[in-house]
């Protein structure tokens, strides 16, 4: 089964989940009619009453599982936050990957629904195996547009009660096209002085990313390319290493196996990265999400599988770099609706019209603090 088939199926799974969770978003507000007693009971069972370490809050939050395929034992984990102000009047924002930095403004502007997807990511699980093992954050470049298409198509033949007032979607750092993604990886690494001029010339001479099979010379050059990332975090080039007592700068973390460009995935360097960020943010998150009291509060890990929950991480992202995104957009040949321009908020220039990042999936860096909520509200 290919990527397009997997992502199309995943889009329909997410559509089922979205319909199921709309009731959580508005069930207590009666916007879709009187919910059943069973639905209200399930909703209350998923309510997060007290999260360890979290201060008292004045908004409701829910977490738990929605079964999307009972025969295969597949369930997706979700975490839903009502908007802090007038949630019944606010839109629903489905967030599938990455961290929101400016959460205070965003939580006031929308009801937030986080879903760990696809099955096998985070607390989402399946009781059956599959022959495709490399699915992760970058595949959103396929299943998010396909989810939008599925909603659009279903809206054509649905009742008023089930109609989804869909406004649009955003994707960031997504795998979209193998050829342009792979070329962008190499050009970005050279442009940011990650690889030498000689290695860059070798890669350009030996590798033809429009073909399925690589030459021996290209394989050799790619091995040297990945060797460089033994010392640099591909997902965030300029962040420091974690050197606390529980880890060291040489510690290697297994990457959640994102969908690698097919020609790169055989290289070991693709599937690992140095520890890093803040400088130990991933360690803190990993330890917290693996606490039993936290998992119980979130109604998570109901299978009691002893796996480790890890935090995964872009204009400093070498994995899906902005260079590759530009190549892909150019290849799509779409009509430009609004030209590139400088971005201003409160009469202050905000550089390039883009989401500022501090790594692959951490949306909104410190430099952009205070702007992400405005940006999202304007977009919605």
From TrEMBL:
Single GO term (MF): serine-type carboxypeptidase activity
The name this protein goes by in its record: Uncharacterized protein
Organism: Escallonia rubra
Signal peptide, first to last residue: 1-27
InterPro entries given in the database record: AB_hydrolase_fold (IPR029058), Peptidase_S10 (IPR001563)
Signal is among the record's keywords: yes
UniProt record similarity statement: Belongs to the peptidase S10 family.
GO terms, biological process: proteolysis
UniProtKB keywords: Signal
Keyword field contains Signal: yes
Origin superkingdom: Eukaryota
One GO location term (cellular component): vacuole
Pfam families, per the entry: Peptidase_S10
């Amino acid at each position: 089964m290919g990527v397009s088939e997997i992502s199309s199926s995943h889009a329909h799974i997410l559509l089922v989940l979205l319909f199921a969770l709309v009731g959580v978003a508005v069930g207590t507000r009666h916007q879709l009619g009187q919910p059943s007693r069973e639905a209200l009971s399930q909703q209350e069972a998923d309510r997060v009453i007290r999260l360890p370490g979290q201060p008292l809050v004045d908004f409701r939050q829910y977490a738990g599982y929605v079964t999307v395929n009972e025969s295969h034992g597949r369930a997706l984990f979700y975490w839903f936050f009502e908007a802090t102000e007038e949630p019944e009047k606010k839109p629903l924002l489905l967030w599938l990957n990455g961290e929101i930095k400016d959460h205070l403004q965003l939580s006031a502007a929308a009801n937030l629904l986080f879903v760990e997807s696809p099955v096998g990511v985070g607390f989402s699980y399946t009781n059956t195996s599959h022959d495709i093992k490399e699915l992760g954050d970058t595949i959103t470049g396929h299943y998010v547009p396909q989810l939008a298409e599925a909603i659009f198509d279903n809206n054509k033949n649905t009742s008023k009660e089930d109609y989804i007032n869909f406004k649009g979607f955003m994707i960031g750092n997504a795998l979209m096209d193998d050829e342009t993604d792979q070329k962008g990886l190499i050009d970005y690494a050279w442009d940011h002085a990650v690889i030498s001029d000689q290695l860059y010339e070798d890669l350009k001479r030996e590798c033809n990313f429009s073909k399925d099979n690589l030459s021996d010379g290209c394989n050799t050059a790619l091995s040297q390319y990945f060797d460089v990332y033994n010392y640099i975090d591909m997902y965030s080039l300029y962040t420091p290493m974690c050197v606390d007592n529980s880890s060291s700068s040489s510690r290697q973390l297994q990457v959640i196996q994102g969908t690698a460009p097919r020609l790169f995935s055989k290289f070991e360097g693709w599937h690992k990265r140095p520890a890093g960020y803040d400088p130990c943010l991933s360690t803190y998150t990993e330890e917290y999400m693996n606490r039993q009291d936290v998992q119980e509060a979130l109604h998570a890990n109901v299978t009691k599988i002893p796996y480790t929950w890890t935090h995964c991480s872009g204009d400093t992202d070498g994995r899906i770099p902005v260079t590759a995104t530009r190549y892909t957009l150019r290849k799509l040949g779409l009509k430009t609706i609004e030209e590139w321009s400088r971005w201003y908020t409160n009469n202050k220039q905000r550089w390039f019209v883009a989401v500022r990042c501090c790594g692959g999936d951490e949306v909104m860096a410190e430099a952009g603090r205070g702007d992400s909520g405005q940006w999202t509200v304007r977009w919605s």
